[in-house]
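writing this on my phone so excuse typos. first protein, seq and then structure
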Amino acid sequence: MDRAEAKTRISKLKKVIDHHRYLYHALDKQEISDAALDSLKHELYQLEKLYPEFAAPDSPTQRVGGEPLKKFRKVTHEFPMLSIEDIFSQKELEDWETYLKKLAPNEKIDYFCEPKIDGFATSLIYQNGVFKIGSTRGSGAVGEDVTQNLKTIESIPLKLNITPDVDGGTSGVKWIEVRGEVYMGRKDFKKFSSSYANPRNLAAGSIRQLDPKVASQRPLKFLAYSLITPLGQKKHSEEHQILGELGFKTYPGEECQNLSDILNFWRKMARKRDSLPFQVDGIVAVVNNNALFQKLGVVGKSPRGIRAFKFSPKQATTKIKDIKLQVGRTGAVTPVAVLEPVTVGGVTVSRATLHNEDEIKRLGVKIGDTVIVTRAGDVIPAVAKVIKGLRTGRERNFVFSKTCPVCLTRLSKPEKEVIWRCPNPNCQAQKREFLYHFASKKAFDIKGLGPKIIDQLINENLISQPSDLFGLEEGDLAVLERFGQKSASNLVSAIRYSREVSLSRFIYALGIRHVGEETAIVLAQHFSTIKKLEEAVKQDLQSLSDIGVEVSKSIYAWFNSKKNARMVDDLLKVGVKILPPENPPAGGGKLSGKTFVITGALDSITRVEAHKRIRLAGGNPLTSVSKKTDYLVVGENPSLKLQRAQKLGIKTINEEAFLRMLK
């Protein structure tokens, strides 16, 4: 990117960030996620570091928040409430320490780490030990007086836990300033989750109400993390100790001697984040020595001696370099966005699905657009939103070709479907994708047999169908490029090991249209053998839960194909052994007779695994909410199922409670 492009990009980023910051900080509204906004701010910060001549005083990186609303009295912060610069990787953490050591070459640097709570930052001032003024961050220099609302929070002491001196002071200090986060606990937030995007929005909306009764009716909490007034503390860790003695709730945190300790704390908090009583989006690492922290000073509006080390975001922003069509194993043609690489959900991605032609039109996406990419768990990254305010005019429309990009056969789209398909059964792309699917982790799980090796085996005419895999010998592979005796032996051993496979995995591996992991499990448990499934008629299939007419027709058609029947026979002939399905306990499990529906993304378990464990405990997992549903398990970003369950009075539980029931 040259100087002219950087100048234009910085200008557009500032405009878009300011728009979303105004919505959030001034109007309590939100159009994009925190993770997406963080990603935009991070890009702007990096560009301004590369081109400091374009870093102006009005940049979002140079200020903390939007202007305070005029409804409250303004409060000037004697010590500005500064922002914390975000970092997202181990390398950025290492770069930060290198930077600190250059600034303080002869100093021993150690740290204090604590979770970064997703709450609403506030300042509390005590006069002679009595709560006097509570204010918001506001612009960093000037906030809003929300004292009466903060007084309704039980975890904020109205009087500090110290004995006044004879002269009316408090241990010789008349004014004490404490800072921390107002937040709402996970369990309490569930009651409001249909009205607010996240706990921070709810905390902010509650505190910034003119009527204190609104705040008093909401179970808000306060967690202190900083003591501004000197009370003998020499380390940040000591501030937490003193705050506890004063009567505040704090999170203990940990003293860290080096970056390895910080990383261990970050990993530990990432594992614990869903079991904490509050939501966190990362950790805060601060230079523990207060004198050194002050000596390091401030750059812009952020202290040099502190960083927010964020957890891997599930959303991030990047640019679309190109859009290509990909042919799947069932002939489905999917548009895929080729991205500038970006880290989302802990992994670097360079591709994201655009689903279908209608989705491209709905999003209004163009080649060259800046977009929000989202990813949750094992879900394929997808383009969620186009940031049209960053367009330069050089973006290009994408034309969806109506011929197969591989075999050039004209595509077809059945009535009432949104996906274009290649109808050619001999299309090489479909054959390759089917073999990728067959060997994948959720199917036969053949270790070391990825797409590149499958392509090599196809190109060398060593395989053309699944059964060919099980006839490969070390000598067939050892002569190939990138293969040696050991790697050939390892792959052949992995293929032989995978010969034993559960019935549900075998069914899934067949690549039947509309049959995913969940349907494969249902079929396996109902029919118990592949032979019984082959003999089933459409009526048998439609009687099963969660198997509708279209899925039933697809399964029936697949098993009535001579070509497919021959493929199954060939697999059995080469020694594939199909293991019987796991069944619920004969006497009924602990969840016997209970029905469950899951909505939203679960962090610690996949939807398919959750359904499997419900069945093994005797329960019945369903996909839609009805009066017969006993529990709705609510994950992140729940669908309209949550509202329907609330109307029907169905009990809702979070992931943590659900996992306890499964134990």
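second protein below, same order as before
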Amino acid sequence: MVLKFILLILIGFTSIIFAQTKQDDGISEKAKKLLSKMTLEEKVGQMTQVTLQVVSKSKSWPDGSKHSLDPEKLNEAIKKYHVGSILNVWDLALDLDEWHNVITTIQDVATKQTRMGIPILYGIDAIHGANYTQGATLFPQSYGIAATWNTEHAKVEGEITALEVRASGIPWNFNPVLGLGRNPAWPRFWETFGEDPYAASAFGRAYIKGLEGDDNDISKEDRVASCMKHYIGYSVPLSGKDRTPAMIPEQMLRDVLLPPFEEAVKAGSHTIMINSGDVNGIPVHSSEFLLTKILREELGFTGMIVTDWEDIIRLYDRDRVADSPKEAVRMAVNAGIDMSMVPYNYSFAEHLVDLVNEGAVSMERIDEATGRILTLKEKLGLFENAYPNKKLRKRFASKESLEAAARAARESITLLKNDNNILPLSKSAKVLVTGPTANMLSPLNGGWTLTWQGDQEAAYPEEKHTVYEAISEKLGGNVEFSSGSDFESAKDIDDAVKKAASADAIVLCLGEQAYCETPGNINDLTLPVPQLELAEALVATGKPVVLVLVQGRPRVISRIADSIDGIIMAYLPGMEGGPAIADVIFGDHNPGGKLPFTYPRYTNDLTTYDHKYLEIQGGNSFNPQWEFGHGLSYTTFEYSDLKLNQSKMVGGGSIQATVTVKNTGERPGIENVLLFVSDLVRSITPPVKQLKRFASVSLDAGMSKEITFTLNSEDLSFIGRENKRIIEAGDFKVRVSDQEADFSLVIPEQASTIKATP
């Protein structure tokens, strides 16, 4: 029995090794033929990526400025430096016609006016829809999608994004973000699928399959290449500020942060973008251990590796691990980088040519990198047709797509508090809508919306509704508005209080203005004081207050949370977010969202749900404002009869957990069922619990449903003391809501600790 189990594991490893050998280096025969004809300069050019600004004459901007390409600069980039990839906008989203003109002009030069005729690979950050194409369908940002606990939303978002990005003439999307939102101060928190590695893996896989298709055939007219990012450790900086150092033990890196990327590799993602920061003092762009040993050799990734913005030169001018820009290029390319997002000049190409001629970088490494880039272009179908498919315009921002985004927004919204059943509000009530996020579209969308920061309110479409406009449409004229305060300063608090006197209820919309990356850094996780003062002034009126939080991270509101009866977390719900919020407030949609992260009560108490036992002993406690997985409904759900099909799982086998969920209330609702497993004793201190399965269930009033989850040995594995994935015999507890059940994992006596099946 022992021998049989170990042999099964060895067979698993052998098949993976064989697959990697058979698939060689991931470079196609067509790419190899092209490589045999290319000069060094042409190869290095393919590895070079510049931003659109480099080949442009003028930029787009909300003041009416229009983008235009510069023919001379474009010729220099493609004919002289043989640039292989272009990205981005400058600075405002283009409409479909503008994109078609840009892509067509670029590809005309690349495919018709160069010796090799190799098409340009255009890339874009389409983070919550085709957000750099005007009029596109925009979904909630990723952590809102995760709050639905329904991976179908992620897949549908991926499908619609792929279609609308391809309709723009672009075949490559820099998404999904697979870092974990475990430091709520981090300004890219909202780009993640939350704090849990299993949830991020599941949503990431679904989104990738949406972008690339179940078969990963990215040559199809409505598919694009995905780009998992930012590998690895970017999302957990010690300071909470963007692009600052992370200190991550290898055990934690492998056990917590690596699984979403491992799952994305298995899902077939074609490209990967690298962490801009450093891990344990080593910039990731220079780490052969992370880029080659783990990513290539261990995970078996054969796709293309691209840097983030300017990150090779930063090895020299910021990180100071290279003594010259040229040395920075050598370090990064030899570590495993295939393409450099330079993005403003051609220094990378010039330095790399010199390095190869000097023997500091091998031609083999150049051929490997260039071969992967050419193979990607082939898989995307660019050699057959590099031009925009204008027929896709008919499917762009369709009614069905907009409804999918609206449905995701509605199902993401999380009811955090509903004391005295203040919600839903009556549609006959006279309502005051106030607060800095109440009458703007930009806070509903966040960064990566029309512009990088997403904060140019003038750029947003007039036909979309803010929260105030959506409530006004629902209630007619029975609504008043007051700004109340700005995001960071007191403004019209007195006006809001005055108008509250004649209102039956107050909808108070607080949160954050749109931001992205480093400009979103903060020094205090607490919601700005002027907003808290506005809330306190309105509570003091004695009128019922419903707080709507429109924010990219969980800002601390403990100062006001206890005094407000109704609190809604709206996340960044996207362009359809205003009506979605109004639907929840007035009961046209029963909220079912649940937090995909732990909402902190204090700025210095940032403990995740999967904390260790030491963190809740000896005077320590786990005391968040709201726990991971928290979310209320306008109906009630009851759990019962959690049963396991066996009391023991044999290593390599599986066990089934079945639980019954009943809607015991008076209206239909969505219940998101989360299953946690606790490893009671193991050789590495175990978390109190870990999420292992989830399901989203719709139940009519009085209806019940039996849900079955299957757990296997891999679900019980962890990274051990030798930094390898293992399983250990022992006792485990399954938890679903208030239900618990116990089982034991049994492993052959002669091998108390063995490697889990890969």
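The two ends are 19 Å apart (CA to CA). thats all i got for now
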